[in-house]
Design a protein that fits this description.
This protein is α+β, with helices and mostly antiparallel strands. Helices cover 56% and strands 10% of the residues.
Length: 436
């Protein structure tokens, strides 16, 4: 029976990658620590689990789809060739159970150092993190900052372990506690160097100088990159703050009344809270038309499906209608339109609610909420609005303009009769603004 390939972006594969990363980090911390203090590496059950996990990881990679230039590759031969050319050697060396071999021959000291081959698996962390960077839920700047500090602390751990090992082999110095070693390392690579823990032997002095060089490199990297990382952690928030500063300056310069200022601030705060600072069309401009249509259909299909004269129409026709929708935001108390206005569009309520007013606009005769629509008669007949409609709260309304609708009907003439027949039936019912 042919084994199915694992989807590269499946949740199961993501969970497996997280497990492998966690185990690799554990090995990168545990093995140097044990070597530094000459602790036994013969935790056979643990080493068997790690070895088995790394071997299974190799098998999984031979059976997982890959992306090449944005295209999903399902050909097993191509997948195997790609894996063999890239990370197979690192994964294979990391999977060899050298800790178990060293436990069987404790007298042969160099064998224990081969346990460090487990650290070859760290190479794979880069590819996993690169995929995580593309995940919408993870801020790339925060992820880069977290990765930076992870490598700093892991490097500090390794430097401290070597310091301990040097002290242990030079027996007259004595083996320092780990907390002292990591304290010495941090003060050295951060160029603080209080001097309360100082190198004594030549080997310690050489290692201290190397740690200082590493510290200088880290300091240069911090100066060059951390400020940039921090400034890009929330680019959208920074842009919003800058825009609000410009608006406040303009309103103050023009001596706009305080009441109007507050309404402007409330409006922009609403846009920010609902992530409406950027128009959908602007954000999707660079995408191919097929992807634009697919995303727009996913976002707005339910709004369209509720409209009677759009039922039983072709999917392509619906997709084109959705692509013509435009978002408008109305403040509480804003009139969407008034009785007697000539209609030129219909409205779909995405968020919020509106009141349909009586003839004298003194009372509400109906309330339309999220998912409802109104004003559809204006798409086929040039008639005056029969009621006034006012926003009851902040409202996100999608509008479909008559000009765009007419252009679509010219493109899809087979639906024209169906829609006009449905509109005639609708006119026999109560006024167009009753709840849908």
């Amino acid at each position: 029976m042919k084994v199915r390939l694992i989807a590269a972006d499946s949740m199961a594969k993501e969970a497996w990658d997280v497990l492998v990363v966690v185990v690799t980090i554990f090995a990168a911390i545990d093995i140097p620590f044990k070597l530094a203090y000459n602790y036994s590496l013969s935790n056979i059950p643990l080493e068997l689990v790690i070895t088995l996990l790394f071997c299974v990881d190799i098998i999984i990679h031979f059976n997982t789809q890959i992306y090449v230039k944005g295209i999903v590759i399902n050909d097993r031969k191509h997948i195997a060739q790609h894996y063999l050319r890239t990370f197979f050697v690192f994964d294979l060396v990391a999977a060899v159970p050298f800790p178990l071999v060293a436990a069987g021959f404790p007298a042969i000291v160099p064998l224990s150092w081969l346990s460090l081959t487990r650290l070859f698996k760290l190479v794979r962390i880069h590819t996993v993190i690169s995929r995580w960077k593309n995940r919408q839920a993870i801020n790339p700047s925060l992820l880069r900052l977290g990765i930076f500090f992870f490598w700093i602390f892991l490097l500090a751990h390794w430097i401290a372990c070597v310091w301990v090992y040097i002290a242990r082999i030079e027996q007259f110095v004595g083996t320092p506690p780990y907390i002292d070693a990591i304290y010495w390392c941090i003060t050295t690579i951060t160029t603080v160097g209080y001097g309360d823990i100082s190198p004594v032997t030549d080997l310690q002095k050489i290692w201290t100088m190397m740690a200082m060089i590493v510290g200088v490199g880290i300091y240069a990297y911090v100066i060059g990159n951390i400020a940039s990382l921090l400034s890009h952690i929330d680019v959208a928030k920074a842009s919003f703050s800058k825009q609000m500063e410009d608006i406040n300056s303009f309103l103050s310069y023009k001596s706009v009344p305080k009441r109007v200022k507050q309404k402007v601030h409330n409006y922009y705060q609403y846009l920010w809270d609902n992530r409406l600072m950027h128009c959908e069309h602007e954000l999707l401009t660079t995408l191919p038309q097929s992807l634009k249509t697919e995303i727009s259909t996913h976002l707005h299909k339910q709004l369209i499906e509720h409209v009677p004269f759009f039922k039983n129409t072709d999917t392509a026709f619906i997709s084109h209608i959705i692509s013509q929708l435009k978002l408008q935001v109305f403040l509480p108390g804003d009139f969407i339109f008034r009785r007697g206005d000539i209609g030129n569009c219909m409205y779909f309520i995405c968020n919020g609610s509106v009141d349909v007013l009586s003839d004298d606009e003194s009372t509400s005769v109906a309330t339309l909420k999220e998912g409802d629509y109104f004003g559809e008669i204006a798409l086929v007949k040039k008639v005056a609005r029969t009621r006034s409609v006012v926003a009851k709260e902040y409202c996100n309304l999608y509008i479909l303009e008559k000009t765009d609708f007419d252009a679509l009907l010219e493109k899809y003439p087979e639906f024209k009769k169906h829609i006009y027949d449905t509109i005639k039936e609708r006119q026999k019912e109560p006024p167009e603004l009753e709840p849908k």
